[in-house]
Structure formats: structure tokens, C-alpha cells
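== Fold encoding ==
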Amino acid sequence: MVARLARYDIEFVEQPVARIDDLARVRRAVDVPIAADECSRSLDDARTVRAADAADLIVLKQQPLGGVRAALDVYDAAGV
């Protein structure tokens, strides 16, 4: 579906699948940038996203992450 939507010049697709390994597979299969969201709720999640090369960007919601500093730590760990 992401490949079919690409012709509309979409900016990115946010969390099209639930698991990080699936996210990495989608990212490798399409040219549209992929954003990690629900799968990155901790430093460990962000590190896993980075190791799997699963996303082009990450959506950070500072409140569930524990504040701005924690969100910035997750950002750094994700490497995107």
C-alpha cells in the first residue's frame, strides 16, 4: 500500500506496521520515508530501531517518554 501511495508525493508514513522488524522490512521495500512512533517508547526501543535501520525519522511524544530530556535521549539513541 505504501508503494501505491508514493505517487502522491507523501512526506512520510508513520508506523505502518507494529513491530520493529516489520518496520525495517517495509523501509527496505519502499522509497517513502518511514517514521517510527508507537514502537519507540524507550531508550531500548530507540536503540533497536537504530540497529534494525527501521526508520528514517522518529515521532517523539515527550509526555509518555517522561519529559523533554528523556525524549531527547530517545532521539539520540534512535540515530535518525
Summary: The two ends are 24 Å apart (CA to CA). The mean pLDDT is 93.
